[in-house]
Amino acid sequence: MTDIGIIAVGGYNEMGRNMTAIRVDEDIIIVDMGLRLDRVQIHEDVEIDKMHSLELIEMGAIPDDTIMKQVNGNVAAIVCTHGHLDHIGAISKLAHRYTAPIIGTPYTAALVKQQIESERKFGVKNRIIPVEAGGIYQVNDEVSIELIRVQHSIIDAVFVAVHTPAGAILYACDFKLDRTPTLGEQPDFDRLRELGQEGVICMMVESTNAKRAGKTPSERIAHDMLRDVLLGTEESDVGMIVTTFASHIARINSIIQFAEEMGRIPVLMGRSMDKYVVTAKEMGYIDFPDNVEIYGKRKDIDKAFKKIMKEGKEKYLPIVTGHQGEPGAILSRVAKGDTPYEIESGDRIIFSANVIPSPMTQANRYSLETKIRMRGGRIYDNVHVSGHAYREDHWELLRLINPEHVIPAHGNIEMHSAYIEMAEDAGYILGDTVHLLRNGEELYIEE
């Protein structure tokens, strides 16, 4: 008899601060330790390195892992599915409480290492062990952790399968079933199918876009949309700025390729651009043409803007952070007139990102767009596809894995209920085989 517990630590009441603990008898595997971005004064370049964990827990910014004291067992490993801050942003604040190694794919492990190095409050000494997608980390004779390749809006993302004597537990958060990605390989459908046949006891699965009908468009579609906006024009000598997620390496890779086709020099700007993109290049995930320029510090960015204005906007393609209208981000500063770069009538600002649906972000973004328009800028909005599965992708995964139990995660109650309705269509029963968990609750499964 194997005693299994699924502990919802964070990310079950909201978007962000994701953390789940999987207990197999006395061994506990923690999956993800994330930050809730809208509770910190939000920026991809967010700085929380000097803040105390208890202060951040109180703000609702990181998971309240004090509940782990009530869970019987020892934490044997901390596993990270991918390198977004809502999945790794709390590691530097919480991991030191556990004498357990941190496991992740090579790119994720590199980002975790940077996160820990920039921490100013806690000394995090946990060993970081990179494991390739498709690899296995042996916890003990009976429990192992398998990383399964998937696609998402950051490279090197995985599902985590915890293998136990009773069967596998699958953590499937943050994915899209993209069969034509522009970087990396498609999800490992063969392994997922096999896993389903071997028997999955329980699957925790993101519910972010479970309300959205249909299938998530491939990244190839965003690639083509960008090409259309950047190259499909007779007015090719105007100033253009593209803004996107700094961690979306595949998207940035496409923009750099198009800059080359346009005969423009790509200029990456922002501290987080510097972090995510340079790391991906150094690790060999992407190649750059020799003329790419990267600036992370504010004074270097302003110097680069000065040069662009002097030599001609039509020669450069700035790729910047700040698409959510975060105060102090580069695009907000440009829109306010706080940089040497001047938006003139007809200049194009291309948003290769969606608006994160929270009232604060929507207000910031509205303010940003208004300022750009007041200066005469033309806005190309939502040149983007999501990194999260829509309803029919969820249906496909559920049928592929066919778990005994399923728990929607990574979302608010509205997202969970949309997932539960879809699971009921597939024959699952609420409270029996599909479960609604809230932060701080544990679901017991005996196998």
Brief overview:
It comes from Methanococcoides cohabitans. The chain is of the alpha/beta class and 447 residues long.
Placed side by side, the strands forming the largest sheet appear as 6-5-4-3-2-1-19
First-residue to last-residue Cα separation: 6 Å
Strand content: 15-25%
Q: Average pLDDT across residues?
A: 93
Helix content: 25-40%
- Are there runs of 5+ residues with pLDDT below 50, and where? none
Count of DSSP-assigned helices: 13
Count every beta strand, where a strand is a DSSP E run of 2 or more residues: 19
Main sheet properties:
7 strands, mixed
Over all CA atoms, what is the radius of gyration? 22 Å
Shape by Cα distribution: globular
**SSE-based structural type:** alpha/beta
Pfam families: Lactamase_B_2 (PF12706), RMMBL (PF07521), RNase_J_b_CASP (PF22505)
Function: An RNase that has 5'-3' exonuclease activity. May be involved in RNA degradation.
Binding site for substrate: 384-388
EC number: 3.1.-.-
Task: Give a verbal description of the structure.
Its cofactor is Zn(2+). The protein has a seven-stranded mixed beta sheet with strand order 6-5-4-3-2-1-19. It has 447 residues and is α/β, with parallel strands linked by helices. 30% of the residues lie in helices and 21% in strands.
Provide tags for this entry:
19 strands, 13 helices, six-stranded mixed sheet, seven-stranded mixed sheet, alpha/beta, 447 residues
Topology record:
Layout: E1 3-10, E2 19-24, E3 27-31, H1 53-58, E4 74-79, H2 85-88, H3 91-94, E5 102-104, H4 106-117, E6 128-130, E7 136-138, E8 144-149, E9 158-164, E10 167-172, H5 189-198, E11 200-206, H6 219-231, E12 240-244, H7 249-262, E13 265-269, H8 271-282, E14 293-295, H9 298-311, E15 316-320, H10 330-336, E16 348-352, H11 359-374, E17 378-380, H12 391-401, E18 405-409, H13 413-425, E19 442-446
Parallel strand pairs: 3-4, 4-5, 5-6, 10-11, 11-18, 12-15, 12-16, 13-14, 13-15, 16-17
Antiparallel strand pairs: 1-2, 1-19, 2-3, 7-8, 8-9, 9-10
Helix pairs in contact: 6-7, 10-11
EC number: 3.1.-.-
Protein name: Ribonuclease J
Domain Metallo-beta-lactamase: 16-225
